[in-house]
């Protein structure tokens, strides 16, 4: 008689395999992988340990588990990542949205004036710009990225989540270049590449191996290159009094803040912490209001 594999048995075997695998996924990641496949939340999955799995379900889980064991990020295995109350499609070629970036969205929604026009470069999956227009129907956002591969995901997410195309524009280009015809904006919001390429050890191996390097690492030897380019364009791109809000790496936060002030275009610069107390957001305003 053919063995009947239950949820509990499959999870037990998967956890044993994980211990000696290159990726060494956590028990939580393995459980999420199976719960997502069965369209269950994790609590319900844990209450159904005696549930038998169909052969098709086991086959799909084996495929997903193989990727996890090789170190592929869970979000890529699932094909999506939850962010600011919405589910965004992701895959190789686009940065996975992080919970730290939700702080940027929350602060922006609190600080953006009524009817603001927002420029958001380095959009990746579109999680920032899309979240803004879904949360407030008075905002208009131009989100851009140099990567066409990333923009494919951003466009798909905008369509799936029914972001108003009259208030969200997605364009390809580098930093201010695609935005200048529509400048000046009321706000500059960005999560630019900020990891020093000379210090890849700052990132987990899974991130280094699988997520797009152009979205993670600063260009060349200048770890502040993305910030420098965005600050330099703010004179023409951002209206006087316009909001500046950017995600930071905790190791370069003070340097970025100094760079913003040295550009001559910003004032009231603050470095704000994340929930763990690490420097995470740069907050300020364009001079001249």
Describe the protein's topology.
Elements: H1 7-19, H2 27-37, H3 42-46, H4 55-69, H5 74-78, E1 80-83, E2 86-89, H6 99-111, E3 117-120, H7 127-135, E4 140-145, H8 148-160, E5 168-172, E6 185-190, H9 205-210, H10 213-216, H11 225-232, H12 234-237, E7 238-247, H13 253-262, E8 266-273, E9 279-286
Parallel strand pairs: 3-4, 3-6, 4-5, 6-7
Antiparallel strand pairs: 1-2, 7-9, 8-9
What does this molecule look like?
The protein contains 13 helices and 9 strands. The protein is α/β, with parallel strands linked by helices and 289 residues long. The strands form 2 sheets. A 7-stranded mixed β-sheet has the order 5-4-3-6-7-9-8, sandwiched between helices. Strands 1-2 form a two-stranded antiparallel sheet. Strand 1 (80-83) and strand 2 form a beta hairpin. The radius of gyration is 21 Å and the shape is elongated. The mean pLDDT is 93.
Shape: elongated
Low-confidence stretches: none
Kindly estimate the percentage of residues that lie in beta strands according to DSSP: 15-25%
Query: Span from first to last CA?
Result: 78 Å
Question: How do the strands of the widest beta sheet line up side by side?
Answer: 5-4-3-6-7-9-8
Oligomer: single chain
Q: Which bin fits the share of residues in helices? A: 40-55%
Count of helical stretches:
13
| Rg measurement, Å | 21 Å
Topology pattern, helix = H, strand = E? HHHHHEEHEHEHEEHHHHEHEE
Structural class by secondary-structure content: alpha/beta
The main sheet comes to: 7 strands, mixed
Overall residue-averaged pLDDT value: 93
Please tally the β strands and state the result. Answer: 9
């Amino acid at each position: 008689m053919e063995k009947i594999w239950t949820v509990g048995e499959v999870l037990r075997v998967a956890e044993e395999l994980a211990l000696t695998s290159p990726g060494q996924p956590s028990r939580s990641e393995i459980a999420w992988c199976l719960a997502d496949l069965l369209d269950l939340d994790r609590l319900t999955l844990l209450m159904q340990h005696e549930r038998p799995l169909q052969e098709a379900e086991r086959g799909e889980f084996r495929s997903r588990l193989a990727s996890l064991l090789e170190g592929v990020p869970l979000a890529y295995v699932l094909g999506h990542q939850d962010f600011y109350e919405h589910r965004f499609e992701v895959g190789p070629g686009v940065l996975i949205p992080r919970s730290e970036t939700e702080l940027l969205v929350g602060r922006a929604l609190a600080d953006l004036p009524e009817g603001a026009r927002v420029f958001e470069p380095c959009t990746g999956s579109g999680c920032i710009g899309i979240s803004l227009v879904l949360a407030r129907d008075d905002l208009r956002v131009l989100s851009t990225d140099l990567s066409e591969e990333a923009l494919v995901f951003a466009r798909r997410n905008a369509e799936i989540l029914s972001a108003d195309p009259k208030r969200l524009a997605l364009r390809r280009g580098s930093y201010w270049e695609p935005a200048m015809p529509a400048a000046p904006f009321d706000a500059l919001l960005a999560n630019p590449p900020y990891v020093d390429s000379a210090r890849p050890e700052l990132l987990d191996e899974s991130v280094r191996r699988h997520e797009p390097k152009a979205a993670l690492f600063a260009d060349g030897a200048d770890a502040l290159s993305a910030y420098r380019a965005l600050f330099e364009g703010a004179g023409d791109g951002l209206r006087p009094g316009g909001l500046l809000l950017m995600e930071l790496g905790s190791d370069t936060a003070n340097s970025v803040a100094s760079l913003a002030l040295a550009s001559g275009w910003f004032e009231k610069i603050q470095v704000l912490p994340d929930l763990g107390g690490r420097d995470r957001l740069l907050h300020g305003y364009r001079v001249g209001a």
